[in-house]
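#structure-requests
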Amino acid sequence: MICTALAESGKMISESDPEISEAIDFLDYYGRQALVFEKLPGISLVGRGVAVVVPPWNFPIAIPAGGVAAALAAGNTVILKPSPDALLVAFRLCECFWDAGISRKVLQFVPTIGIPEAQRLVTHADSSVVIFTGGTETAQTILRAKPRLEFFAETGGKNATIVTALADREQAIKHIVHSAFSHSGQKCSATSLLILEDEVYHDAHFKALLADAVDSLSVGSAWEVKNKMGPLIRPPVQKLDRAIKELEAGESWLVMPEQREDNPQLYSPGVKWGVQPGSTAHRTEFFGPVLGVMRAKNLMEAINLVHETGYGLTSGLESLDNREQELWQHRVKAGNLYINRSTTGAIVHRQPFGGMGKSAFGPGIKAGGPNYVVQFMRIKETAEPEGRDATDRELSELLDALRSHAAFSTEEIDKVVAATRSYTLQMANEFGVEHDDFKLIGQDNIRRYLPVHDLRIRVCAGDSLFEILARVCAARAAGCRITVSQVEDLDSPVLAFLEHATESWGAAIEFVEEDDAALVDVIRTGHTGRLRYAQPENIPTAIWETVADTGIFLAHAPVLMEGRIELLWYLREQSLSIDYHRYGNLGGRASETRAEPM
C-alpha cells in the first residue's frame, strides 16, 4: 500500500507510513464506538442507506479507510469514489476490505475521471449520505447542486502558527518547517501562515535561522528516502502558480522557491516575508510549499489575523507563557489547536480531526472522535433514557412550571422531564467536561465541546410540546445563546408558556416572529451560527438553498430525549494538544500521575 501511494501520487514513505497506522486505528475505533451507541437504553439504530465516500488524493490510505469504516460501522452500504489521482491505492484498499469479508455489494469501488460523472454520483437521488474531504469550493458546488443532501465534509484550511516574544524561537522554527513543508505543503492541516509578534518579526537571528532551516530541506524524488520533500501532485496552476511566481505589495522572498531537476512538479519551498493583512497570501489556501510571514503587534492582533482568513481547521501557538496559552486557546476559532508542537499529524481518539468556519460542512463532528459514527445512522427512540434531576436552576424552574401547567398532556411533560434529566447527565459526564483519555507524559491531548453561541430554534405549525421544549432545554443545557424563531401568525400555547417561564433567563433566550424570507436574511448576514428544526418536511426550499450557499449547518434530525445524541446538534467539537515538556523536562508537572510509557 505504501509503495502504491508512492508510485501513484508521489507520497513519501515517511508520510505514508503513519497513514497505515491511522487506517488501522479507524477500523478498530469506529466499530467499538458504534457499539457504544448501540448499547444506549431505549435507542434503535440503523444505517441511512447508501453512503458515498469521496476522499482526496493527499491522504490516499487513511482518509478513505476512515470514511469507509465509519459508514460500514453505522450500517450503510458504501460506494468509494476515489480521487482520479489515487485510483490504484483506493482499489487496493477495497481489496483489503473484500478480503476481510466485506461483500463487494456492500462496498463498491466506483472510480470517476470527469467532474460531471462525479457530480452525478454524489447528487444521485439514491445517495443517502456523502462523506467528503477536499476543497471548500468543491464542497459548496456539491451542496448547491443538491441543497437537501446529507453532506458531511472536512474541507480546506488557511492555517496559522503564531510565535510570540515569549516563545522558544529555535523550537518554533523546527515545528514550523515541519508543519509547513511536510508532503510539500499538500496537507489541509499544514501551516501556511506564520504570524510573528513584533519583536520576533524584527529579530534578525530568528529570520536567518528560519531561512537556513527551509533552505536545508532536501528536495527530490520520492523514491529516495533521504529527501524531505517530493513532487507536487501536478504542476502548479492558478492560485499556487501565482503564489510561487509572484509577490504582492510589501512582500519579499525570504526563501525563493525554485523548480528542480527540470521537473514541472518538483519545487523547493518558498517563504514570503511581509505578507499584508487582507492580501491574497493572507486569505487564500495555496495547497503547496509556500509559507507567508506576517507581523502582529501583539497576541490579540495575531488572533484577529487568523480569524480574518475565514477558515478554522488547525491553529498553532508557540509561547512558553501560561497566560498567553490560556488566552489563545479560549479565543482562537479552530477545530484542532496545537501549543508548542507541529500542527499536523492528528491521531485517532487522541486528537480527533475537523474544523470550523469554511473548514467544515455539517455538524462539525470530528473524524477519529467518539461521535463520528452516529451521524451516519438513523435513530429511533423506544424508551426513556437514563438521567438525573436537573441541577441547573433555570431548567429546574422551567420544569416546575411545566409540571404545574394543567393544559399540557402528562405524557408530553414526562418526555420533557426525562429529556432534561438526560441532557444534564450527559453534560456532566461527556459534553461539559474536558477529556484527556491518554495522559501522556509531557503532552496534554484534550477533547472538549463548545456551545453554538447563536442557535436559532425554528418553531413551525405542528411542532409538539416536546419538540419545542426539548430543543430549548437542550440548547440551554449546552450553554447556547438561544433565539426561538416562530413562523408568522403561529398561535402556540407552548410558546406563550415558554416565553413567560423563561423570563429569568435574560439575554440567554430571545423570541422572534419572522417569515421564511426574514430567516433567509438572518442566515445570509451571519446572524446565526446554526439552525435547529424539529421536522425536515417543515423546511422550505429557500432555507435549504441559503444554508447550502453559506455553509451554516441545519440540524433536522428527530428530537430525542437521549442527551448523548441530541446534544451533538448544539455543540462544536475542539481538540487541543499541548507539549508541556521542554526537551524532556517536565518542570512543575513532573509529579503528576500520567500513563506509563509503553
